[in-house]
Amino acid sequence: MTPEEAELVDRIGLFMETVGAPRTIGRIYGWLMVCDPPEQSLTELATALRVSKASISTMIRPMQEGELVERLPSASREHYYRVVPGGFTQLLQVQLTRMHAGAEAAEFGLSVLGEQRTQQRERLADLRDFCRFAATEIGDDLMRRWADYRANNKE
Amino acid sequence: MTPEEAELVDRIGLFMETVGAPRTIGRIYGWLMVCDPPEQSLTELATALRVSKASISTMIRPMQEGELVERLPSASREHYYRVVPGGFTQLLQVQLTRMHAGAEAAEFGLSVLGEQRTQQRERLADLRDFCRFAATEIGDDLMRRWADYRANNKE
DNA sequence: ATCGTCGTTTAGAAGATTCTGAACGAACTG
DNA sequence: CAGTTCGTTCAGAATCTTCTAAACGACGAT
């Protein structure tokens, strides 16, 4: 890994950290984005990133579940991974999905709040609607809008 | 605070935690959503939530900066706070703003990556575009779409 | 002026997260 | 079969975050 690649890897690590993921996940992802060849075994990743195999092993699982990377079918014993193209959209999707919890909390609030507290009820209803809006409206619509945007910005 | 209100407060605390904020911020926000009267002094908040004044003092600052709550002008020495209506949209706005860092990291990657690595360049460009899309397109558009959605769901 | 009350700041405790090395079982190699 | 290499798991270390109590300065009341 060149020093420039190392800097990229760390930058993506920091980025992932700001959106709530462990830094190592970002570093793995960053490296898989630029490495050559694009598929890497778990041991190779550990060596390249100077991180223990244990960390890679633990971190790569949520990455698979989140569909950021995929494991390649392989006859050998090694586990080879590569980025799934466009998988970074999951970063947002996951965040938006979490808004459901907000909607549920607000809904609960409405169910236990006295009828006469109209001002408070209005605020809770507003919060609930927004969380639903974020989780469903934006979420469902996201991929389509992204595809459009992407098509328009293609050169 | 009734037990039901306490549960709501804790639920919103958990929700906030899932979106990356300290739990106490969520609990403060939850309480300010339903309390009566809707404006509360820092000391009152500490008492109601059974949290030290120090915590409230530390946590309420980022809440003000994030425009979740506002401090009321007041002649007295107490600092009175209340929720700013619709301020929860900031929860998403902040998240989306953070995507800028991803765009910058990808841009950096493109600037240091060899020209012949077309596959990698494509992936980075894609990541950059998506981060920009999330930060600007969605971000700018969010309020308008929310206003529409809100208007349509008003009864 | 003294006292009580306000919010802030700071130092340290408590707790959660993240990382590593070592031990392990499974699978291939000679 | 013994030896090597693979990924996983577990216990503990290191680190970061979050919380509190205590000390503090500012302000107002008596």
| Quaternary structure of the protein | homodimer
Strand content of chain A: 5-15%
Radius of gyration of chain A: 20 Å
What is the number of independent domains of chain A?
2
Instruction: Using the alpha-carbon principal axes, give the shape of chain A.
Output: elongated
* CATH topological fold name of the largest domain in chain A: Arc Repressor Mutant, subunit A
Instruction: Tally the beta strands of chain A.
Output: 3
List segments of chain A where confidence is low: pLDDT < 50 over at least 5 consecutive residues. Answer: none
- Report the biggest beta sheet of chain A as strand number plus sense, adding barrel if it closes: 3 strands, antiparallel
- Secondary structure: helix percent of chain A: 55-70%
| Second-tier CATH architecture of the largest domain in chain A | Orthogonal Bundle
